[in-house]
Specification:
- Two copies of one chain form a homodimer.
- Helices cover 31% and strands 26% of the residues of chain A.
- Chain A contains eleven helices and 15 strands.
- In chain A, a hairpin with a 2-residue loop joins strand 11 and strand 12.
- The radius of gyration of chain A is 21 Å and the shape is globular.
- Chains A and B meet through helix 8, helix 9, strand 13 and helix 11 of A and helix 8, helix 9, strand 13 and helix 11 of B.
Amino acid sequence: MINGIEEKQFATIEGGVCAAKGFKANGLNCGLNKDKNKNDLGLVVSDVMCNAAAVYTTNKVKGAPILVTKAHLAACGGRTRGFIANSKNANTCNIDGVEKAEAMCQLAAKALGIQPEEIVVASTGVIAQILPIEPIAEHVEELAAGLSYEGNQKAANAIMTTDTVMKEIAVEFELDGKSCRMGGMAKGSGMIHPNMATTLNFITTDAAVGSELLQKALSDVVKVTYNCLSVDGDTSTNDTVLLMANGLAGNPEVTSESEEYKIFKSALYFVMMNLTRMLAKDGEGASKLIECTCAGAPDLDTAITVARSVVRSPLVKSAMFGRDANCGRIFCAIGYAEADFDIDRMEVAMSSENGRVEVYRDGAGIEFSEEKAEEILSADEIFIHIDLHQGDAYAKAWGCDLTYDYVRINGDYRT
Amino acid sequence: MINGIEEKQFATIEGGVCAAKGFKANGLNCGLNKDKNKNDLGLVVSDVMCNAAAVYTTNKVKGAPILVTKAHLAACGGRTRGFIANSKNANTCNIDGVEKAEAMCQLAAKALGIQPEEIVVASTGVIAQILPIEPIAEHVEELAAGLSYEGNQKAANAIMTTDTVMKEIAVEFELDGKSCRMGGMAKGSGMIHPNMATTLNFITTDAAVGSELLQKALSDVVKVTYNCLSVDGDTSTNDTVLLMANGLAGNPEVTSESEEYKIFKSALYFVMMNLTRMLAKDGEGASKLIECTCAGAPDLDTAITVARSVVRSPLVKSAMFGRDANCGRIFCAIGYAEADFDIDRMEVAMSSENGRVEVYRDGAGIEFSEEKAEEILSADEIFIHIDLHQGDAYAKAWGCDLTYDYVRINGDYRT
């Protein structure tokens, strides 16, 4: 159990955000991105209104799209038909940001024949550059006309920035005997840090779940998935996780913390945890995934703080890149985690598909074979295991190594 | 005034930790470092006992030398004769760490003909590798025999790890008509972050200052110098700042917060602020210094938090390396600073010896000439100016850019 959520395996299926009944998607290049082969504008719409839940960046600088999305969800009693999203420009710190974000919703709504408040909006890309609305205005009808139940990858491509791979997943599960589906897409890949980053995450489901529980499930799961993801310690201005449930699966609406609710939450954890891993693995310049588990913690927050401290340490990250089993850096990162625990009781190990090695016990490092350690670190998924031996709480955090490519990408991002 | 300290200019002089009367130093290669041209063992000793003040890492994992130093200072009523220090091995997370740190003091004390408790100890280098005591035992008499009033650079060289330049400074000032001197040496250069890092800092003075005020002055100055330094966000296990005052200048001992105390504190700020700048500029792989000032803050802690947030952001650091005026990243880093202030009233500017450009006002970015910005960012000292316009407090923070070399150095540190 992580944060009261049971970790279950689910069968994955194709379809991403279109896997659930009644969700159409599309994406195209409208010209914000000079590379015509890369989409920059996406649209995902449900056939009927959805209950919606959302989590946004904690940054004081909030992208204008977030302000508009909040207002529209409020205007519709927490419900929405879908969203329009663009990459290449974050529409943030601009004098006309809200105006442009509203215009995007108006354009999409007009093309769909619905009200502007029934659509929400998200943007990702460069901050503090005026968003040109013309390319969007000129392509929005084509975008709406091309919506299809198979358009998930076009939309997933549209939200990518420096991502090198598309991130989507979908699963099937049963609620009260009805088959339900849930799918998600996400984009990273820099500026990713606890409390989210320029991650845009959209999850769709045909399960019928009441608004209040939908938000509770999302908040509980975000805490132990996206908020445990760190690529570089930067928290972006535009992060948005949006969960839409249109109820078309026909199950009786989940309105209490029943067994059905637990299954739904486990499915949501599975979807978001896997997207989180994909985001970490495709972190800017990353060559490998680092997953750190902190078990035996006195409470959940301590477990999260310790695990995150390790995956965000630039020195740990650089050592992982160099396959250098410099474990002192792991102990050091555990030690400066801002949490209250007794460091002398902990045990630490490292593992990968190539084996496992214990590195710390009884208040001191353990000698280990450098050869074995290098073999372990040569895998592309590295696991760090911490057991504090002072409680039952546990949590995981995900990150990636720090590479030359991270510096190259971010030394000259805008050109 | 920063934290109640007046920022004054002082005349700098030669001599580093030997500038003040009665301080001898030496350094040599004892074999911990395979490069025979690089010292790895240093010793600094005062002719008479000194009042001492110290600040240590906040990391829960504390190097054994710190435990021994604390015990020895306590045993001598907060006084000491000097210190022995080594690089290449941090003597941390080792089962025999305290034993070895004690042995270093015993060896030095024997060679000097004093008690082991009269000497303190510091180590820096790789964590969780057993420290071989033999090379130290074999060279400690040579080390003590070679102590001289001109040995400061030999000692400063001994504490360097990945530092590319030696860091020392000394100043002259007057207390009650007596000429006093103060000098310092420091080593960085990775694992440097607010609340210190593998920074070892030793400051010597011949001014006579009471123990209590010595500690107060050091704590007040550390808060706005070393603790405002960030190279990579990692806080080390071995950080130590040691301030020793032997009173040989002959001034009446400073025992109240008099004008003399204020002058002493300004001198200490000048010495430590300049060492801080040297550490930032020589951060691992750094090609330039970033100094961020946050003025107009409601209180000091807010000013520090905001300024530190900017200099530690990997995205800001990467952009500075690439001379990319991606100011959105600066606004973003200000926005996620964990402090309570109104972001819409702030103004932001960037400058260097090549000019100045305003980049943010009235809640939005300001358009600026990219050419001009690139020219500004091509300097090797970049200044970021933030005015929150909501109070009188201000603070500075220092960092460096994030470069390919940082990754190279840390991808394979131990070999």
